[in-house]
Fold this protein.
Amino acid sequence: MTEAARRPLLQIIVASTRPGRVGEPIGRWFAGYAREHGVFDVEIVDLAEVDLPMFAEPEHPRSGRYTLDSTKAFSALIGRADAFAIVHPEYNHSFGAAVKNALDHLNQEWAGKPVAVLGYGGVAAGARATEALLPVLIGLRMVPVAATVPIPFASQRVSGGGDERVFTPAPETETGAKAALDGLTGWIDTLGPRGTR
Ligand SMILES: Cc1cc2nc3c(=O)[nH]c(=O)nc-3n(C[C@H](O)[C@H](O)[C@H](O)COP(=O)(O)O)c2cc1C
């Protein structure tokens, strides 16, 4: 495939890692929705599978000099992406530790790339977690789309069991997801696909 024909790669980061997490079916739903949207190649980066240790690099990640195989592999994975969507839960009025640990691991690999944020939780719909996460993303020189997606009472919208669990979005969640994907597309048009620079 030529560079001109290459579709931008959207990585959907599933940020909850605990057994039984609703983030996994929400991430799968959003991946399917993003594929139907038609602009991106889509892959899921599941932080439970990536299984990073707590950040333990001796140098600042902006140096790109990593010592741990786990960091080197994560760098290669994230470096391939042109855009991100972070699907993350609200824990204790903020974002969870797993997403912060993953973000802290790298630097240039995130920079200059658009990012959409889908937060979920109970009545607060993950909105506090997302508002707390946005300054972190900006600190990493990422480009957040304005259309964040709050998902209230997310666990009530998951049915089935095990690997068959299905997330059924409310209509306003689908509307928000489309706005987020359109926002990412707009930034890709403005910034160009990072992978070709
Ligand atoms: C440690 C913990 C803290 C939580 N704190 C909040 C909170 O502050 N606000 C909220 O709306 N929901 C809160 N919840 C509910 C979660 O958002 C809800 O359980 C969600 O399903 C968690 O995502 P997960 O299943 O993908 O881990 C909390 C859940 C846990 C486990």
In short: The pocket of flavin mononucleotide is lined by residues 16, 18, 21-23, 89-93, 121-122, 124, 154-155 (CB under 6 Å). Residues 50 and 59 are 21 Å apart (CA to CA). The longest helix spans residues 171-191. The beta strands are 9-14, 41-46, 83-89, 114-120, 143-144, 149-151, 158-159, 166-167.
